[in-house]
Design brief:
The chain is of the alpha/beta class. It folds into two domains: 110 residues, Urease, subunit C, domain 1, CATH 2.30.40.10; 287 residues, TIM Barrel. The chain contains 16 helices and 16 strands. The chain binds N-(iminomethyl)-L-glutamic acid and fe (iii) ion. The site of fe (iii) ion has 5 residues, from loops.
Length: 409
Amino acid sequence: MKKLIGPFTQILPLSGLPVKEPIADDALQIIPQGGILTENGLIAEVGDFGTLRKSNPQAEIEEIQGDHILLPGFIDCHTHLCFAGSRAKDYALRIAGKSYLEIARSGGGIWDSVTQTRAASKYLLAGFLVDRVKRHLRNGVTTIEVKTGYGLSIEQELKQLEAIKIAADNVRADLIPTCLATHILPKDFNGPVEEYLELILNKLLPKIKQENLANRVDIFIEDGAFSTADAACYLEVAKKMGFDITVHADQFSTGGSEVAVTVGAVSADHLEASGEQEIKRLAASETVAVALPGASLGLGMGFAPARKLLNAGACLAIASDWNPGSAPMGDLLLQASVLSAYEKLTTAETFAALTFRAAKALNLYDRGVLETGKLADMQAYPCADYREILYHQGRLKPDKVWKASEQLI
Ligand code: NIG
Ligand code: FE
């Protein structure tokens, strides 16, 4: 059954825009009084509402009252949403002046979340995850990447992946799982780092493949996490096994993004410490540069050089990094609005970074633009001009959200 949704005051399909490089706002196509024709969860046609109604008299009409701006659903391509517990203690120490790495060394940090997450059953974890996903969905985020990384043993990483699967079966957003068993070397692992990496490669990743629990692998390259040399060996093998690669790169020090580009990672995320050389290398590659302003806000540190990355020719995505430690806020639109203000990103670049460019970071090409044949994942904001959305810096939320053409909100 065909369904025609509209009229929208403006539809921004975000189609026909470049995958890399800067985008001026006047490149944005704006369809006034627009309509979306959907069929079986996909977009059949986008255009003038009146014209679509005339040419599709048999279509069911879902009428939109009042001014609304329609955008593709947002895609959050980097989160750590599968966790239990809180790290409010860490945050209090940070605002009192301790650094993220100091807190980690003195018993807080990622390991604290590992302890709290290990203590939760997979059903409890799935429940927490469902609540967070629903919050994201209400804010127009229809595809969400979710990392493990708070299990850090074969059994506990599998528990996290199973929790993600249970949650995915119980929410309408698409959840894209990523194995981050290499978040840090677990404190209770008795052996050298090479042995841990071998364990993950030989025992965990084959099981993940076999049970189809994830097709992406991530690693945190940093002092206190994994070295560039160890990470490069690990990622080459994971890639040969058929996993897409993504990297926590250049957060506090450089090195990670070079590894990411060398192994052909789909994305290099964080990049707050990236300099001219790293920017150039990323821009020349097919690796998406993912800025995580939520981590900058949570840590009180500088943002990734988003403007320079775009100017150099990179593909820039923006994600929330929502996690209990460095980025507890989890409001993607607010974070992207703030990043655009500080980094001078155009509205077009910011929307691209939250939609089709974020989809590329997940190797997904069926969403992120409103075009014939793409998923009808959409969100509508109650205003009359698309520029209102970033202007309100996250306070203006969508009041309608659709996943695969089904209206959820
Ligand atoms: O992306 N940097 C490493 N990992 C996460 C933080 C996870 C945590 O602090 O629990 C990040 O910021
Ligand atoms: Fe992260």
